From TrEMBL, chain A:
GO biological process, one term: transmembrane transport
Keywords attached to this entry: Cell membrane, Membrane, Transmembrane, Transmembrane helix, Transport
Organism encoding this protein: Streptomyces cahuitamycinicus
Chain segments annotated as transmembrane: 30-50, 89-112, 119-139, 175-198, 226-247, 281-300
Domain spans labelled ABC transmembrane type-1: 85-299
Protein name: ABC transporter permease
Automatic annotation (TrEMBL), chain B:
Domain of life of the organism encoding this protein: Bacteria
Function: Part of the ABC transporter complex PotABCD involved in spermidine/putrescine import. Responsible for energy coupling to the transport system.
Name of the protein in its database record: Spermidine/putrescine import ATP-binding protein PotA
Assembly with partners or alone: The complex is composed of two ATP-binding proteins (PotA), two transmembrane proteins (PotB and PotC) and a solute-binding protein (PotD).
Lineage, broadest ranks: Bacteria, Bacillati, Actinomycetota, Actinomycetes, Kitasatosporales
Catalytic activity: ATP + H2O + polyamine-[polyamine-binding protein]Side 1 = ADP + phosphate + polyamineSide 2 + [polyamine-binding protein]Side 1
Recorded GO CC terms: ATP-binding cassette (ABC) transporter complex
Presence of keyword Transcription: no
UniProtKB/TrEMBL annotation, chain C:
Main location (coarse class): membrane
Similarity section: Belongs to the binding-protein-dependent transport system permease family. CysTW subfamily.
Domain ABC transmembrane type-1: 67-257
GO cellular component: plasma membrane
PROSITE patterns cross-referenced by the UniProt entry: ABC_TM1
Organism encoding this protein: Streptomyces cahuitamycinicus
Pfam families for this protein: BPD_transp_1
Keywords: Cell membrane, Membrane, Transmembrane, Transmembrane helix, Transport
Spans traversing the lipid bilayer: 12-35, 73-93, 105-127, 133-154, 180-202, 234-257
Keyword Ion transport appears in the UniProt entry: no
Listed name of the protein: ABC transporter permease
Localization annotation: Cell membrane
UniProt topology in membrane: Multi-pass membrane protein
Upper lineage: Bacteria, Bacillati, Actinomycetota, Actinomycetes, Kitasatosporales
Amino acid sequence: MSTLTEAPPPLAPEAPEPKPPKRRGRFMPYWLLLPGILWLLVFFALPMIYQASTSVQTGSLEEGYKVTWHFATYWDALSAYWPQFVRSVLYAGTATILCLLLGYPLAYLIAFRAGRWRNLIMILVIAPFFTSFLIRTLAWKTILADGGPVVGALNTLHVLDVTSWLGWTAGDRVLATPLAVVCGLTYNFLPFMILPLYTSLERIDGRLHEAAGDLYARPSTTFRKVTFPLSMPGVVSGTLLTFIPAAGDYVNADLLGSTDTRMVGNVIQTQFLRVLDYPTAAALSFILMAAILLMVTLYIRRSGTEDLV
Amino acid sequence: MTNKTGPGGDVRLTGIAKTYGAFTAVHPLDLTVPQGSFFALLGASGCGKTTTLRMIAGLEEPSAGTVFLGDQDVTALPPYKRPVNTVFQSYALFPHLDIFENVAFGLRRRGLKSVKKQVEEMLELVQLGEQARKKPHQLSGGQQQRVAVARALINHPKVLLLDEPLGALDLKLRRQMQLELKRIQTEVGITFVHVTHDQEEAMTMADTVAVMNAGRVEQLGAPTDLYENPRTTFVANFLGTSNFIEAEVDAKTGEDIVLKAGGGKLVLPEARCSAPAGTGGKVLVGVRPEKISLTHADDAGEIPEGRNRITGRIADSSFIGVSTQYVVDSPVCPDFEVYAQNIDRDPRLVPGAEVVLHWNPAHTFGLDAAQDADAGVEEAV
Amino acid sequence: MPFVNWFKRNLVVLAGLLTLGYLLLPNVVVTVFSFNKPKGRFNYEWQQFSLDAWKDPCGVSGLCGSLSLSLQIAFWATLGATLLGTLIAFALVRYRFRARGAVNSLIFLPMAMPEVVMAASLLTLFLNMGAQLGFWTILIAHIMFCLSFVVTAVKARVMSMDPKLEEAARDLYAGPFQTFVRVTLPIAAPGIAAGALLAFALSFDDFIITNFNAGSTVTFPMFVWGSAQRGTPVQINVIGTTMFVVAVLFVLVSMVAGNRRNRHKA
């Protein structure tokens, strides 16, 4: 699974690779590329075009749809569903930050402190992947059940009073509230944060810590000035790998949330599969795609790690 | 492929050249490596020596010219059809195969069924009989090196190509392996073409050394020849250290050229001058640091007649055990290097002392003054 | 103060272990509740210990059918994606060609795209083409989104491979085909295996894209999704637990085997 963290170079031009040897078959690379690239063109790129075209169509299921360049669909969709968009960004953003806060200590533990337990912990991080994530998400219904031990403990500690006041929970319930959805999102995408973090932490030479200590840095300073900056590649790819799928997710909002916690993924799903309003669904999906691509590009620029994702 | 050392094992390159786009890696080159010799291509990285080797192996297609093995033109043959094998830099042992299978690889590819006996014999030759079932990463660097040699030699190639085969080893092991390779070569009698950037390695092992620079062969000859009588400043500097004095031709007397430098006169045997030396012309006079004797200026009278002499002041001296190395500031050359054997050390020879440098004119060599006196200094290791 | 100091030094360990607990808690719950005997249709509250579900894992109609369908799809999707992805990876590492940047982007984008977007747009394509939704549309979709991950895994491996090894093979009388079979493929194998394993896991567990493009066909994740609305049979937990145990055992066994092989050689 660590391959997730080694995504190929992005849209940015490639760093000069060692010159591949010259071969006699000039068309060989194209033959090798042909089937796979064709597959991606037909079943990934072409659908994007279809979707763009669908989003500016009008009509109905019975009479069929026609391209009428009806851009108002976008406006209508945004004005009707902007709360879901805001929620998606908010929930996914919160989950990403939580993943970073929770995942960093574990990645650090595996990289520097686990010793001979390293492999075992690594397996325990990856193994849940092999149990259907839907089953595991359903388990949160049990964990967060009304009147269960978790909710009971939170209630006794008056945590729920605070979260209710913030609007994260409702009364003495956790299920069907934003907190439950964020909790599920955090849980589901946590490994995607831990693995890239671990990969970049593991590359850090342990002697750098000693050198920093030798040069009068206290442990906390060493972390701020040496460890954390060097793990930035992992932080960047981890946050991307967490945020992107979280922002498009609708499973957690559906299973752990309520109608008040619906995210944009839920809307797209409903419009497409239940309401069958294809133009609106396509427009929403297109907006989500554009927003995410824009954010990813800006984020990669800002963090100055174009060669890392 | 099967005849071990039959006639026609010469490697002949005629007009061979390699260009990558606008960059010329190897300029058109003629070279003959005689059957059974240990031949070294010596040069700094990027000088074209490895490219030349790869063209012999067939791993690189020459842009022009022909490669002959004996009488056979192999230029168009792919590597797997050439009776030539290579010991690669950092060995390129197959990590997924054990030592036995690595060594057996070439035999098996040529369809031999019973390889056991041959492989075992070969492993004995390189003293690795015990390690046959280990994987390459379990061996030390020196052992891996010997596997690489065994893997190539077992095929009885007409020519064995060695691409910096000792580069990854530490100094002590490298010396040991140099002798080992030399022994193997003498034993099997196969032509060895050895690429290296280490002049000591080339001089220790090879019968003939070709010094390459910027895609050309600068000079070719026996190691002593190259060292004692270099024909370019590059060769002079790349193989050891040289001192150069710019001098003007004053006169010719029989077999010697008399030169003026600063206020004094220097004598150079004409046979050792590779530059055109007309009267009044400029010549770079070279002399190796260990050929020079150092005498304190007070004793200048005791220096025998007939030696070339130069005056100067010691700028620096460092004691390195077997010898003492002096840097002498002289009017004709600012940093004259002198290596003096520590036989009888003169306590007056300390920095600041006025000295006379003198040497036998037979150790002088003359080079074309039009070239850079420092060529090859940076490249030498 | 020794306790405070100890606590300070091991704070990161404690925090990491808490996170690990958070990650594993649902698996514990899934396992425990596979021994439950629920009262109603939903298996969310503990009632009493029972082995009923373990004795009859296929006792719920449609469950094992969906499981077998998911396994089939995962198998073929893995095969397809691994084959196509390996070819692309070799082309990317070994050759220079035009449009390299475009190819890289085309491979990167599916990994940077929310699943729901790919799911929705692929459905528009299928609807426009009038394709019959079912096994084949699911398989097409799965190969599509697994492909990029295989390329990444194989590419990393092939890139770290010394090109001199292939030259050595050619120097030792192996022709192009022999070189590929005897040297290139065996060395690239771990990368290809990692890619295939990843593809299998991704395909088997995919819900969002499958849900859009399955029509009335029901894969295992879709069965679980459906049961979340209608009632969750205990058998789901049995299968979830089995999968977890099998996965952990598989990894442990391969690790022990690897260790033993290394020790043997040393």
